[in-house]
Design brief:
Elements (H helix, E strand, L loop, with lengths): L2 H5 L10 H10 L2 E5 L5 E5 L2 H9 L3 E2 L28 H10 L4 H5 L2 H13 L6 E3 H6 L1 H11 L8 H11 L7 H27 L5 H10 L5 H32 L1 H9 L4 H11 L9 E3 L3 E3 L2 E3 L4 E4 L1 H4 L34 H18 L4 E2 L21 E3 L3
Helix pairs in contact: 6-8, 6-16, 8-12, 9-10, 12-14, 12-16, 14-16
Length: about 400
């Protein structure tokens, strides 16, 4: 195996994958690699190629179209959502929830998100140090998405176990014990959602689950699609934002000149979060696509049903698009980063994530302007998984 490719997806690779990505962009921008689960896939690392692949309808999201058995995903209640759908089904499913996630609708949550943020930071008052992930970056987005969906307070922490299992399972060797654990978590999640749906049918409210159940009862949404849409919103609605907040604060702590600039010019918060998204995207790889037909793509022959993955973090460090991409520069001109994807599958929750990031990052540094990392960056433990990118813990010293 190529020495470079053999280093991909290893623990040594994860903390700083960018030199390897730069080499791939130069030598083999569309490369066939072996994934941690044993599958082979084409990974796309250049910006322009990534943009084309993300927008192309030749790469499909619904793998069942390529199988003889049309119900290949029958075992999963999470498969029927917009993430795994192509047109026209994607447009229908996205349309059922998109009106709740427009920038104008999300702006209505600004006051409440600020309240939640302030409450979380108040709980750290008097502390000299904290784990920023556990005490701040994790609880904020899970509280927000659960309030939008109408999930009771006492049930929120359980979602961490379930969503971690789904996300991190993408980068594990599936031994029997691990597979059984994932299956157990998914079974618990399905049982919980079923019970929650039954409760909401009896006592509907103004939350998003109630609205989607009403849509189901109008025969616009099947029961399986209801499970798929809600599970996607719960997992995507907080997992990526946890790492967005954590990665952004970490990037600013590691670049004190940029942090000082943002603190001296608070109006830079919006470009700062766009730059931290580009610099260390919390979603490293796009979700799976498959070639819908035999094709030539950027000099490589890709066969029908081949797995194709866009490396978003590599595209965001492509020097053909971003000057000095390895430098964090919060004054960078408006960024065309791919952190939220592009095309019809661009992240539905981007306005919510941006708002949460803006409030969380600005509020944290306003309260704790002289914060320092309380760990050597080389000792940070990065999460597994081929979707999200982030650390398990981020110890900081809360110097006022």
């Amino acid at each position: 195996m190529d020495p470079l490719k053999s280093t991909l997806f290893t623990k040594a690779f994860t903390p700083n994958p960018y030199p390897a990505y730069a080499q791939l962009r130069e030598e083999e921008p569309v490369a066939r690699v072996r994934l941690p689960d044993g599958q082979y896939a084409w990974i796309i690392t250049r910006y322009e190629d990534a943009l084309e692949a993300l927008k192309s309808q030749k790469f499909i999201k619904d793998f069942t179209k390529l199988t003889d058995n049309g119900d290949a995903n029958e075992s999963s209640v999470f498969s029927e959502n917009m993430l795994f759908a192509d047109l026209p089904e994607h447009k229908r499913l996205r349309g059922l929830v998109s009106k709740s996630f427009t920038p104008q609708m999300i702006e209505r949550y600004r006051v409440r998100i600020q309240e939640i943020t302030d409450e979380l930071l108040e709980q750290t008052e008097g502390q000299e140090k904290m784990d920023l992930i556990e005490e701040f970056a994790f609880p904020l987005p899970i509280i927000v998405i659960c309030e939008i969906l109408g999930i009771p307070v006492e049930d929120r922490d359980q979602f961490r176990t379930w969503s971690n299992s789904m996300i991190e399972g993408t980068n594990e060797t599936y031994d029997e014990a691990h597979a059984q654990e994932i299956q157990q978590h998914m079974s618990e999640f399905v049982q919980y959602l079923g019970a929650r749906f039954a409760t909401v049918r009896q006592n509907p409210g103004d939350d998003l689950i109630s609205k989607l159940i009403a849509t189901e009862e109008e025969d616009q949404l099947t029961e399986k699609e209801l499970y798929g849409v809600i599970s996607l919103l719960i997992i995507a609605g907080h997992e990526t934002t946890v790492n967005f907040i954590g990665n952004s604060i970490m990037a600013l702590l590691e670049n004190p000149d940029q942090l000082a600039l943002m603190q001296s010019q608070p109006e830079l918060i919006k470009p700062a979060i766009e730059e931290t998204l580009r610099y260390n995207d919390p979603v490293e790889f796009s979700t799976s696509r498959w070639a819908g037909e035999d094709m030539e793509f950027k000099g490589q022959f890709i066969r029908k049903s081949d797995l194709v993955i866009v490396v978003l973090n590599s595209a965001n460090h492509d020097s053909s698009q971003f000057e000095d991409p390895e430098i964090l520069d919060i004054t960078r001109e408006k960024s065309k980063h791919l952190a939220f994807g592009k095309g019809i599958h661009a992240c539905l929750g981007a306005p919510l994530a941006r708002l949460e990031g803006e409030i969380a990052i600005s509020s944290f540094f306003k309260r704790y302007p002289n914060t320092l990392m309380n760990i050597d960056p080389d000792d940070l433990e990065w999460r597994g998984g081929m979707v999200v990118r982030g650390v398990r813990e981020l110890p900081v010293l809360l110097n006022r």
